[in-house]
């Protein structure tokens, strides 16, 4: 596995692979890899002959009061995991390499970004969209894989890719969960043993909503209330938002006529957990 720290070297590597007719599949990450990331890497292997994974904890997507400094980092472990997956190149740039003179140009996905996560993390998707566009120009992939756990992020990136004419196929990958349903996340490392026991209440809420919709309930308010009650039964869990939305626009909807997205963010101790489910009629 080639480890690349410089943008120029990444572009030269990528251009050589393209000239050799290789399809490049890209998995951008912030490291501290878990089985969810490894599932994205395995999906990428099926999509291209060359797989590039980036590890970059992007300061621009964290607000000053968020967990940028505390965000878990373990490069040696990540590198070994990626070597084991036979990844071709690991792109590991420094912040100075990605933002050499700061950054005066940003990408605002105007209507999707301020909703849901954006309401509670203003500026977050501006940081995500900007760094992903920069990474696309550095890695020059044919295709890129993102987890559906961050459903809104996936939609923001799809929209940005389309709006800016990136010739890159964006692929979403289903959420990988622990046996009790908790979606894998690097932030699960913040949970104490007791908090970890409280965390599957998010998954129970999603399942309760799915069951109600399967039984014929179409009122979004009633479905949301039932899902909310699952989480409120858990004293350590505090809901930040729980919404039923149009899967494309992410606008809240009163009735579930076709598919609807149930998206939620919940604080459990020091961890802010997000999850979602597609409710299908
Ligand atoms: O999902 C993530 O890990 C990050 O938001 C991403 C896409 C790597 C951009 O920094």
**CATH superfamily descriptor of the largest domain:** HUPs
Question: Please, how many helices?
Answer: 10
- State the name of the first-level CATH class of the largest domain: Alpha Beta
- In the CATH classification, which architecture of the largest domain applies? 3-Layer(aba) Sandwich
Strand/helix succession: EHEHEHEHHHEHEHHHEEE
Strand order of the largest sheet: 1-4-3-2-5-6
State the distance separating the first and last CA atoms.
Answer: 45 Å
Strand and helix map with partners:
Layout: E1 2-4, H1 7-19, E2 24-29, H2 35-47, E3 50-55, H3 75-84, E4 89-91, H4 95-98, H5 117-120, H6 124-139, E5 143-147, H7 151-163, E6 169-173, H8 193-198, H9 201-214, H10 220-232, E7 237-245, E8 260-268, E9 271-279
Parallel strand pairs: 1-4, 2-3, 2-5, 3-4, 5-6
Antiparallel strand pairs: 7-8, 8-9
Bound molecules: pantoate.
Pantoate binds near residues 128 and 131.
């Amino acid at each position: 596995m080639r480890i690349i720290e410089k943008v120029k070297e990444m572009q030269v590597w990528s251009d050589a692979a393209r000239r050799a007719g290789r399809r490049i599949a890209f998995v951008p990450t912030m490291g501290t890899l878990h089985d969810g990331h490894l599932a994205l890497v395995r999906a990428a292997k099926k999509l291209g002959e060359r797989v590039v994974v980036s590890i970059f904890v992007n300061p621009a997507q964290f607000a000053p009061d968020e967990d940028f400094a505390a965000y878990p980092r373990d490069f040696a472990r990540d590198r070994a995991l990626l070597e084991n997956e036979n990844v071709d190149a690991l792109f590991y740039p420094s912040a100075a390499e990605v933002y050499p003179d700061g950054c005066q140009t940003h990408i605002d996905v105007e209507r999707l970004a301020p909703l849901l996560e954006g309401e509670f993390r203003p500026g977050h998707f501006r940081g995500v969209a900007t760094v992903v566009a920069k990474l696309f120009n550095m890695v020059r992939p044919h295709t890129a894989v993102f987890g559906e756990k961050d459903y809104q992020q996936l939609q923001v990136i799809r929209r940005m890719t389309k709006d800016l004419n990136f010739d890159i196929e964006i692929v979403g990958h289903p959420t990988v969960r622990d046996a009790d349903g908790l979606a894998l996340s690097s932030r699960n490392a913040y949970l104490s043993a007791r908090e970890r026991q409280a965390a599957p209440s998010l998954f129970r809420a999603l399942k309760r909503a799915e069951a109600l919709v399967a039984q014929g309930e179409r009122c979004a308010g009633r479905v949301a209330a039932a899902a909310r009650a699952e989480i409120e039964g858990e004293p350590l869990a505090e809901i930040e938002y729980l919404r039923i939305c149009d899967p494309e626009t992410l606008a809240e909807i009163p009735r579930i006529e076709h598919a609807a997205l149930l998206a939620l963010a919940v604080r459990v101790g020091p961890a802010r957990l997000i999850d979602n489910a597609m409710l299908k009629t």
